[in-house]
Amino acid sequence: MPTRRTLLAALAVVPLAACQQSRGPVQVSAADDEAAWYIGTKPDKPYDVPLVDTGRLDPKYRRQVVSYTGPEKPGTIVVDIDERQLTLVQAEGSAIRYGVGVGKLGFSWKGEARVGRKGVWPDWSPTTTMVSLNPDLPRTRKGGVDNPLGARALYLYQGNRDILFRIHGTNEPWSIGEQMSSGCVRMLNEDIVDLFERVPVGTRVLVKRNGKYRV
């Protein structure tokens, strides 16, 4: 298993992103460098999951159990693009809420979908649109701690069609709460692992903007 030093060295590689930032990587100042975000790892296979100092996040973006009065059934994932939050509805009026990063203006998707498949330390490939915007992008990248999809990915489908939007981990924890990706919903690696273990394939996913998921 990689040591913490090896892990941080890998994370220092500039991300390619998927569901990549469309304007280039965030600039992290020397006083707030990447390594300072990480406090250790959680055992996983084939790589350990990087753990983040969540004290650096706005409290609203930290994983928490909250009251929930919405109409959605337990087990539903509700993503609020405006609030930068993902909610997993639970029974008896409660929910688990996670902070997320979302697509920048013009890239965010809204609607209803389902989890069509799940990936562990998934490989990354750019969409046709991403390649048209940046022809120099590599066409694939193997899963790992420096992969922009992070430790897990939930692939969103409508019917039998992969709509090319994902809920996935990130190697840029400072992007949680921001609107900067090419459309996908990104979570801390430790949070996507937690969500991944709670939801099966077939889970209903509602992605809302302006309080609505329907056009």
TrEMBL record:
Positions annotated as active site in the UniProt record: H168, C184
Source superkingdom: Bacteria
GO molecular function (one): peptidoglycan L,D-transpeptidase activity
Keywords carried by this UniProt record: Cell shape, Cell wall biogenesis/degradation, Glycosyltransferase, Hydrolase, Peptidoglycan synthesis, Transferase
Pfam families referenced in this protein's UniProt entry, alphabetically: YkuD
GO biological process: one example: regulation of cell shape
Signal peptide: none
Record-linked InterPro entries: LD-transpeptidase, LD_TPept_cat_dom, Transpep_catalytic_dom
Keyword Transferase: yes
Cellular component, GO annotation: extracellular region
EC code(s) of this entry: 2.-.-.-
EC class name: transferase
Record pathway: Cell wall biogenesis; peptidoglycan biosynthesis
UniProt domain L,D-TPase catalytic: residue ranges: 75-208
Sequence similarity: Belongs to the YkuD family.
Protein name in the entry: Putative L,D-transpeptidase YbiS
Organism from which the protein derives: Methylobacterium symbioticum
Gene: ybiS_5
